[in-house]
Amino acid sequence: MTADSVTALVRRRPARRLRARVLVPAACLLLIPGCTTGSPGRGTPPTAGFTAGDDGVDRVEKARRVAAPRLTGESLQGERIDLGDYRGKVVALNVWGSWCDPCRAEAPHFAKAAKELKGEGVEFVGINTRNRDKTQPVKFEEDYGVTYPSIYDPYGELLLRFPKGSLNPQIIPSTLVIDRDGRIAARAMKALNEEQLRDMLEPVLRER
């Protein structure tokens, strides 16, 4: 091997090492399924019709709302759930996973609000995602007293059916409020306490 070829080889090696350093972290980001939260508007185009609120809740004027997809699936208890059956009610639709710390933080607030608001025409429905079997999410419901049903969606397929810009499937927990006509009225891409949840629901409840 000549001196020139040795020099050329040495010059090429740092570039290879640099490429490896870039590719490995990028691959790791794709593989990590951790609980992700973000700012309310992240990843959402302005055409979604939402107006950001100071409270972290985005709302849509009644005339600009779009229909939520008619989701169907099996609950964690094996019963069939059809979101279309809730037409005429205000629905709080919560996306959660038992592996998610913010989901655990908000669960007692949702469980309490669901029981207290049921008589006012509010129904709660969950979408459980990224749990590869039902054991842990069922235990989650038992631990936090969650009595409303959740559709089991381990691979997030249902989340991809929402209108573009209305829901970011990478941000968990997320909550959508669906009005009596089955349209998306509000969303929060963060954990909520009971007061925040009620503030999100009440304007839609007052609509007639």
Automatic annotation (TrEMBL):
<dbReference type="Pfam" id="PF00578">
    <property type="entry name" value="AhpC-TSA"/>
</dbReference>
<dbReference type="GO" id="GO:0016491">
    <property type="term" value="F:oxidoreductase activity"/>
</dbReference>
<feature type="domain" description="Thioredoxin">
    <location>
        <begin position="62"/>
        <end position="206"/>
    </location>
</feature>
<keyword id="KW-0676">Redox-active center</keyword>
<protein>
    <submittedName>
        <fullName>Thiol-disulfide oxidoreductase ResA</fullName>
    </submittedName>
</protein>
<keyword id="KW-0735">Signal-anchor</keyword>
<dbReference type="GO" id="GO:0030313">
    <property type="term" value="C:cell envelope"/>
</dbReference>
<keyword id="KW-0201">Cytochrome c-type biogenesis</keyword>
<dbReference type="InterPro" id="IPR050553">
    <property type="entry name" value="Thioredoxin_ResA/DsbE_sf"/>
</dbReference>
<dbReference type="InterPro" id="IPR000866">
    <property type="entry name" value="AhpC/TSA"/>
</dbReference>
<keyword id="KW-1015">Disulfide bond</keyword>
<dbReference type="GO" id="GO:0017004">
    <property type="term" value="P:cytochrome complex assembly"/>
</dbReference>
<dbReference type="InterPro" id="IPR013766">
    <property type="entry name" value="Thioredoxin_domain"/>
</dbReference>
<dbReference type="InterPro" id="IPR036249">
    <property type="entry name" value="Thioredoxin-like_sf"/>
</dbReference>
<dbReference type="GO" id="GO:0016209">
    <property type="term" value="F:antioxidant activity"/>
</dbReference>
<keyword id="KW-0812">Transmembrane</keyword>
